[in-house]
């Protein structure tokens, strides 16, 4: 048994934003064990007040530099719900296509650049260039594909411009879609190699289980990445669906002293969102190729090991490729044409949800008769996961103490746990700080 | 192909100057003979523009260079040492030098690449540039275009 441990991690590395881990163990007793989020709120809901509906998604997209497509989609869907807009089938498919692009791009980054160093025993991706050069090169190739894929549909991948209330403002040509299709299929060998790498590293994934509630979008026709009702899955397999408009019945946000971010809970003490939650909820509608990969990787629903979220991400990138090829085939078959944007039929309030890479994402807005925003609410997936991370800590730390782990081992296990959720707490500045040497 | 690439956080005051220069260039129709790209906070996607056929890349970014706020300098990554202590490479932290280092290590061709570093005046949670940088946007755009045209 570990008798004494004092762990202070400020801030956990290789996550997007700042979060701290504090653990005190004395005489084998866990005195303190907390996941802290010290970031200041950014008040996006205030920023959108008084803005025209055409501007709102442009602003809320900036909530996140990696999930900006998800925020754009959730925002536009909420606005369309408020304005009585139903978009065309073509717009729907193009939006599904860009949603897959974001999921792929973000997961490739997380699996290879943020999580892989843990499993390969490296402090960051940089030492891997020398020891696992092909893994890094492959990651960059796939990251590039994700960027080009999103840029084709959205005008640009980060903060897409073409996804607007009423439809899609600019559409790709058939030729460009065919080229994208070729690029996606050409990436299959890199996908297979990625899966092989994840499989080789699977023994390094910590064995830890904590059954929890899993919340994700779900529908009866596909994996639910772009759209669906809210679905809760309990450890005993019980499922319950809620309309997106009732999202507050699920999120039940509350504040805690240790965190500037709100916590969420539904039926149990906490719930999980993200790739593992989607996998557990929607496994039946996973693409067959992705199901095969899940079998190879040894993951099956209901998987209750949070570290396996990264493995679920590997399954999802396979799904992203094949689902997108099918979407492209459908778009090419019907022909893609620039359509006029659907105009508002009313002004009121509405909600929208989509699955960001890190989990279910909610936006809600109200608009006055002039189409100006009167208020908003955005609940991001990472905030929904903070409470679950805390409850994971509360089960994991006593287990680590019982296994007589050293402080360093415990610290790594806790950092890896946080990283497995791929948290996206906030975006920061990106300025350079240099000294001239020549 | 030549690329003008803006990097920075649109919501962090003068950190947004890279994307804002790109935005200005596109809005004024000045993107002739090169492609203007707003990467915002996703500097890692710079790899998408590191090709064998790429003639030049100019990255515009806020930079602490020891200049007067609002002044700028165009330089090669070989001329500088980064002072940033980075624990890894995420879209939350990280800089273009690290991306270039990673890409070079992974065997990517590194085309002629320069950085236009603009000394920030005010960083912080704001959707606008400082007055000093805002009024100089046309000058930054002109200098960037001159650089790309002169190569």
Can you tell me the CATH superfamily of chain B? HybD-like
Structural class of chain A: alpha+beta
Structural class of chain B: alpha/beta
Q: Report the CATH C-level class of chain A.
A: Mainly Alpha
Strand content of chain A: 15-25%
Most extensive protein-chain contact, per-chain counts? A-B, 49 and 56 residues
Total count of strands of chain B: 6
Mean pLDDT of chain B, to the nearest integer, reads 89
Q: Number of DSSP helices of chain A?
A: 14
What's the main sheet of chain A like? 4 strands, mixed
How many distinct domains of chain B? 1
Instruction: State the separation between the terminal residues of chain B, measured CA to CA.
Output: 12 Å
Please tell me about this protein's structure.
The complex is a heterodimer of chains A (438) and B (151). Chain A has 438 residues and is an alpha+beta fold. Chain A has one domain (44-390): Cytochrome-c3 Hydrogenase, chain B, CATH 1.10.645. Chain A has 14 helices and 13 strands. Chain A has helices at 44-47, 53-60, 68-83, 89-119, 126-131, 133-154, 174-186, 188-201, 247-251, 275-282, 288-297, 309-334, 381-402, 407-420; strands at 5-10, 20-26, 29-36, 163-164, 167-168, 213-218, 229-233, 239-242, 271-272, 349-356, 359-367, 373-379, 432-436. A four-stranded mixed sheet of chain A has the order 8-7-6-9. A three-stranded antiparallel sheet of chain A has the order 1-2-3, covered by helices on one side. In chain A, a hairpin with a 5-residue loop joins β11 and β12 (373-379). In chain A, α4 (89-119) runs antiparallel to α12 and α13 packs antiparallel against α14 (407-420). The longest helix of chain A is centred in the N-terminal third of the chain and has 31 residues, at 89-119. Chain A is globular, with a radius of gyration of 21 Å. The N and C termini of chain A lie far apart (55 Å). The model of chain A has no long low-confidence stretch (mean pLDDT 92). By secondary structure, chain B is α/β, with parallel strands linked by helices. Chain B has a single domain (14-149), classed as HybD-like (Rossmann fold). Chain B has four helices and six strands, in the order βαββββαβαα. Chain B has helices at 17-27, 96-105, 131-135, 137-149; strands spanning 2-7, 35-40, 56-64, 72-75, 80-82, 113-118. A five-stranded mixed sheet of chain B has the order 2-1-3-6-4, with helices on one face. In chain B, β1 (2-7), α1 and β2 form a beta-alpha-beta unit. In chain B, α1 (17-27) crosses α4 (137-149). The radius of gyration of chain B is 14 Å and the shape is globular. Chain B starts with a strand and ends with a helix. Chains A and B meet through α4, α5, α6 and β13 of A and β2, β3, β5 and α2 of B.
């Amino acid at each position: 048994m570990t008798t004494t441990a004092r762990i202070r991690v400020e801030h956990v590395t290789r996550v997007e934003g700042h979060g701290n881990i504090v653990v005190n163990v004395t005489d084998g007793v866990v005195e303190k064990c907390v996941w802290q989020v010290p970031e200041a709120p950014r008040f996006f809901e205030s920023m959108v007040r008084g803005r025209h509906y055409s501007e709102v998604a442009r602003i809320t997209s900036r909530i996140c530099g990696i999930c900006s497509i998800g925020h754009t989609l959730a925002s536009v869907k909420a606005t369309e719900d408020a304005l009585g807009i139903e978009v065309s089938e073509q717009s729907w498919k193009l939006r599904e296509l860009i949603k897959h692009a974001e999921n792929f791009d973000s997961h490739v980054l997380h699996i290879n650049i943020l999580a892989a160093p843990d499993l390969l025993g490296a402090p960051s991706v940089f030492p891997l260039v020398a020891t696992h050069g092909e893994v890094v090169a492959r990651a960059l190739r796939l990251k590039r594909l994700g960027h080009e894929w999103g840029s084709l549909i959205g005008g640009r991948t980060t903060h897409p411009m073409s996804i607007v209330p009423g439809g899609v403002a600019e559409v790709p040509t058939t030729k460009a879609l065919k080229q994208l299709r070729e690029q996606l299929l050409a990436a299959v060998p890199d996908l297979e190699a990625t899966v092989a790498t994840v499989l080789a590293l699977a023994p390094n994934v910590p064995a830890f289980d904590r059954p929890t509630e899993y919340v994700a979008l779900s529908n009866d026709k596909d994996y639910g990445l772009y759209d669906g009702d809210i679905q809760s899955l309990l450890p005993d397999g019980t499922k319950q669906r809620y309309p997106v408009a009732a999202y507050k019945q699920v999120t039940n946000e509350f504040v805690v002293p240790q965190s500037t971010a709100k916590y969420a809970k539904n039926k149990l003490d906490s719930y999980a969102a993200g790739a593992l939650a989607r996998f557990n909820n929607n496994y039946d509608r996973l693409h067959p190729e992705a199901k095969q990969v899940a079998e190879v990787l040894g993951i099956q629903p209901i998987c209750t090991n949070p570290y396996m979220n990264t493995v679920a991400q590997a399954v999802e990138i396979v799904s992203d490729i094949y689902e997108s090829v099918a979407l492209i085939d459908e778009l090419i078959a019907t022909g893609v044409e620039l359509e006029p944007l659907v105009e508002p039929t009313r002004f009121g309030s509405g909600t929208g949800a989509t699955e960001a890479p890190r989990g279910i994402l909610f936006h809600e807005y109200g608009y006055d008769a002039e189409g100006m925003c009167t208020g908003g609410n955005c609940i991001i997936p990472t905030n929904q996961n903070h409470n679950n991370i805390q409850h994971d800590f509360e089960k994991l730390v006593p287990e680590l103490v019982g296994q007589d782990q050293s402080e360093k081992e415990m610290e790594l296990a806790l950092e890896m746990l946080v990283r497995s959720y791929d948290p996206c707490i906030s975006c920061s500045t990106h300025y350079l700080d240099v000294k001239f040497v020549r | 192909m030549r690329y003008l690439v803006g990097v920075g956080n649109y919501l962090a005051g003068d950190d947004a100057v890279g994307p804002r220069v790109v935005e200005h260039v596109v809005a004024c129709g000045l993107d002739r003979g090169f492609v203007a790209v707003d990467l915002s906070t996703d500097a890692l996607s710079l790899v998408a523009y590191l090709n064998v056929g790429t003639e030049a890349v100019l990255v515009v970014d806020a930079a602490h260079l020891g200049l007067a706020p609002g002044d700028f300098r165009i330089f090669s990554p070989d001329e500088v040492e980064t002072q940033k202590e980075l624990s890894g490479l995420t879209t939350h932290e990280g800089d273009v030098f690290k991306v270039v280092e990673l890409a070079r290590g992974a065997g990517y061709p590194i085309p002629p690449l320069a950085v236009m570093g603009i000394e920030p005046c005010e960083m912080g949670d704001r959707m606008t540039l400082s007055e000093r940088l805002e009024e100089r946007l046309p000058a930054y755009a002109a200098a960037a275009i001159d650089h790309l045209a002169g190569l």
